Amino acid sequence: MKKRAFSGIQPTGKLHLGNYLGAIKNWVKNQERYENIYCVVNSHAITIQNNPEELKQKTFELFAMLLASGLDSNHSKLFIQSRIDYHPALAWILDCNIPMGDMNRMTQFKDKSKKNPKNINVGLFNYPALMAADILLYQSDFVPVGEDQKQHLELTRDVAIRFNEKYGECFKIPEPLIPEVGARIMSLDDPYSKMSKSNSSENGIIYMLDSKDMIIKKIKRATTDSLNEIAFDRERGGLYNLLCIYECLSNKSRSEIEKSFQGYGDLKNALAEAIFAELEPIQQEYTRLTSEGGYIHGLMTQNEEYIKDIARTTYEKAKSLVGLI
Ligand code: TRP
User: Fold this and answer.
1) Which is more confident, 67 or 196?
2) Residue 183 forms part of a structural domain
3) How far is the CA of 10 from the centre of ligand 1 (A)?
């Protein structure tokens, strides 16, 4: 039996190269190793997003983009979180088993609250419990996530271990799977903050649907330094980030990459080419999938019975263990 991997991705913002190289490309690459379940976590998105039409559209786009990126239904089951009611239902049971002090330590809540002081809601605080429910419902062995989700994974493991001890065996204890390369793609114009909609300006982000010209323009403008010397050196953040992106897209070792380029101009040209070569087939597939509206909607529901069965089994067990009738 294959081990099961579960991960979630939020439909906020347009999908970009940071999402793709940090998560999706690895999901696709490893999809034959595991039985994968991937969830578009739109219920998490309403902790921040409050434009209903936009949320619907983004959910649809993300779902299509994940398929276009190469997730294949033989190995990876893709579904929409809000369509399975067991997620918030299990989150409630977990809520009642997470000490306030543990939740208070979550750094992502603090960061998000600071960034958006006008909308600090209870859901945002409670976000990690819903995430734990996502993972635990499916008895997941592994959770492929970025480094920034490590603390949420620890909380998930802690609540699962505590629950099993207190009420009886119910949840499998999941392990994080954090990729070494590409886990953190930084912004092109501010290489010390992560490439993300909330941190970066438009020039700092390459979107999945950017044209070749856009990609070339953004890479040309990317921050480097004046040494014009190619080396993987973390201290030189701009250059390091470009080299890491190239590394993710090529099959070359770091030392081979360092020898491949004369200077920054040379590197930037090759990098823009490599990015477009990766994105072009995905863009074509995305266009094909979305040109017929009903097609994606059909795919959205295709895995639901399978998913619901797994979730129901875990939920009913947890419910009964805590004495809910
Ligand atoms: N919190 C994750 C993120 O922002 C998204 C997420 C929600 C998730 N539920 C999950 C990731 C379950 C892995 C497993 O990246």
Assistant:
1) 67
2) no
3) 7
